[in-house]
Amino acid sequence: MNNSFFSKFTPKETKFFPILTEMADVILVASDLIIECVQNNNHELAIEYYKKIKEQEKKGDKLSAKVFDELNSTFITPFDREDIHHLADKIDDVTDYINSCAKKIVLYNPKQIPAKAVEIAKLIREDAIAIQKAVNELDVLKKNSNKIKEYCLELKVIENKADDVYENFLIDLFENQKDAVEIIKMKEIMSELEKATDAAEHVGKIIKTIIVKYA
Amino acid sequence: MNNSFFSKFTPKETKFFPILTEMADVILVASDLIIECVQNNNHELAIEYYKKIKEQEKKGDKLSAKVFDELNSTFITPFDREDIHHLADKIDDVTDYINSCAKKIVLYNPKQIPAKAVEIAKLIREDAIAIQKAVNELDVLKKNSNKIKEYCLELKVIENKADDVYENFLIDLFENQKDAVEIIKMKEIMSELEKATDAAEHVGKIIKTIIVKYA
Amino acid sequence: MNNSFFSKFTPKETKFFPILTEMADVILVASDLIIECVQNNNHELAIEYYKKIKEQEKKGDKLSAKVFDELNSTFITPFDREDIHHLADKIDDVTDYINSCAKKIVLYNPKQIPAKAVEIAKLIREDAIAIQKAVNELDVLKKNSNKIKEYCLELKVIENKADDVYENFLIDLFENQKDAVEIIKMKEIMSELEKATDAAEHVGKIIKTIIVKYA
Question: B interface mutation test: which of C72, C178, C191 has the most B CBs within 10 A?
Answer without folding.
Answer: C72
